[in-house]
Amino acid sequence: MKRILVVKVTSLGDIVETLPVVSDLRRAFPSAKVDWAADAAFADIIRWNPGVDRVLSAPLRKFKKARSWKDLKDIAASIGELRAEKYDVIVDIHGVYKSAIIAFIARGRRRYGYLNQDLGERGAAFAYNARFGPRPLTDAWRGMRVSVADALGYRFDDTPDYNIRLPAVTRDLEIPHNTRIAMLFHATSADVKKWPKEHWAEVGRWLTARGYSIALPWGTEREQGEAQAIAALVPGATVLPKLSVVECAHWIQASELVVGTDTGLVHLAHALQRRTVMLFAATSREHFGIDEPGRSVSVGEEGAPPDVPQVLAAIESVTGAPLQFGERVIS
Fold first, then answer.
1. How many Å separate Cα 283 from the centre of its chain?
2. What are residue 54's DSSP bridge partners?
3. Which residue ranges in the chain fall short of pLDDT 50?
4. To 5 degrees, how large is the angle CA 30–CA 34–CA 37?
5. Is residue 4 within 8 Å of residue 88, measured between CB atoms?
6. SS3 breakdown of the chain: % helix, strand, coil, rounded to 5?
7. 7 contacts 90 by C-beta, under 8 angstroms
8. Residue 140 and residue 21: Cα distance in Å, rounded?
9. Predicted pLDDT of residue 67
10. What is the pLDDT of residues 20-47, one digit of tens each?
11. Domains of the chain by range and CATH?
12. 86 forms bridges with which residues in the sheet?
């Protein structure tokens, strides 16, 4: 095995949770080159993993929004770059039209994709001349690792290796030292995933009473307003300035605890080995959650968001910070 192409196009959380596949391939085929094809919006995150030799990216999302001539030319150029190498194996672990098209355009002897019933979009099946086995009965993240390992004939360590090396930032982020930072990722692109600001405020006050400094990140003006509304209810809480993804990653790395909704940056916190609590309200916790006993845990479920006591209990489970006598009992 000389050259392998991984195809996982979007989104942030999915990209982060695919990184252990690269480590698995590196262990199984130490001399192989491992390339990765993805949307340009997430290419930098893949480059944080030194196990990836070449990141092939195209501004697919950007072109879909703006339809600019420049983006179209960049997509055309990326096709030429994609076809510059011939792969022994192409593994499409996304399973939708856009990933299938990339797998089909790439030059390779074997193009693996999911079985029809496991594809995100059935029409993607046209691109493959080999298939993964039936989707294993496990979460989505381990399932990707199992599918690739079974197809290529190797075994992997149960503990995922994300192998992230953050690049330096170009400005002083003014991250406080000797401070127990708790980042609360309240923002999410889907309103159905949101948690009430009063709940966030109650969690923030609970953590503040235990010596944490609360940091509230945001990405849009609306999210900034929501962060300010939460901060107004949590004495001493800080609304962070607008951060790039890598800047936010440095804040995460400096934090002792991260609590947030089912979003990509919370998956990144888990990958960076932070103590992490992920809240679910609109997607499957069993399928998309994180779980490492004593460090990361997911609470809530599709259609049944967690209440405050459940979240406080989850925080206790990853920090070892039990409630004090006289506080609200968590059931």
1. 14
2. 35
3. 323-331
4. 165
5. yes
6. 40, 20, 40
7. yes
8. 12
9. 82
10. 999 999 999 999 999 999 999 999 999 9
11. 3-152 (3.40.50.2000), 180-319 (3.40.50.2000)
12. 107
Structure tokens at 102: 């990339």
Tokens of 205: 């006050």
Report CA dihedral (69, 71, 72, 78) to the nearest 10 degrees.
150
Name the DSSP class of 47: H
pLDDT at 331: 26
Range 220-240 burial, b when 16+ CB lie within 10 A, else e: eeebbebbebbbeebeebbbb
Q: Is the pTM of this model over 0.90?
A: yes
In contact, 186 and 258? CB cutoff 8 Å: no
**Position of tokens 């709940």?**
199
Long-range contacts of 274-281 (CB under 8 A, 24+ apart): 275/318, 275/319, 276/318, 277/311, 277/314, 277/315, 277/318, 279/195, 279/305, 279/306, 279/311, 280/305, 280/306, 281/192, 281/193, 281/194, 281/195, 281/305
Give the 3-state secondary structure of residue 265.
helix
Contact 240, 182 (CB under 8 A): no
